[in-house]
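Try it yourself: sequence plus adenosine monophosphate, in.
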Amino acid sequence: MNIILFGPPGAGKGTQADKLITHFQLPHLSTGNIFRENIKNETPLGKKVKSILDSGQLVPDETVIELVLDELQKKRYSKGVILDGFPRTVSQAEALDNFFRSNGDKVDAFVTLTVPEDELINRILSRGEGRSDDTPQKIKTRLNVYREETEPVLNHYQKQGIVNEINGVGSVDEIFERIVNSLS
Ligand code: AMP
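Structure, out:
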């Protein structure tokens, strides 16, 4: 089963992904985590994307698509994947759909977490993960990028009729229950 976990920064995608991987016994693929790991280890990819992550802008489609499609070919994803933070543009969504289609596979569910904007900002500022892009100015940039470049991805999957819209306000367990119920 291939599940996309979608929503603005601070919506709780990472937290819910951690619970879903245990529940569904599926591997987690978070492009943000992969980029941060590469930055920490100072790999060529890390050096290439560091200033982009710091700015709150998106890594170019070409780089992200190549990374994800290479990753998805690994055996560990043979039973499916929980995608978190990808796709973030319509081009990425199309590349993902084509990849799955050419393997006789598809996106089975698209879960979008809905959270009011003031709550998103409060959550990010209070999560204290020490991320370089978690400052008020960078959060504003990331929310603008989300609205302009990422939100159209929702419409792309709405056309496929696979969107589960979940109220992302509540306790972690409540939200998790809503997601699991929507998928069963
Ligand atoms: P995240 O951890 O998902 O919030 O991602 C952190 C940052 O990594 C984003 O602000 C982007 O700079 C970059 N990033 C993560 N995923 C993508 C993606 N699918 N496309 C472009 N940039 C991405």
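One thing you can check immediately is this: The two ends are 12 Å apart (CA to CA).
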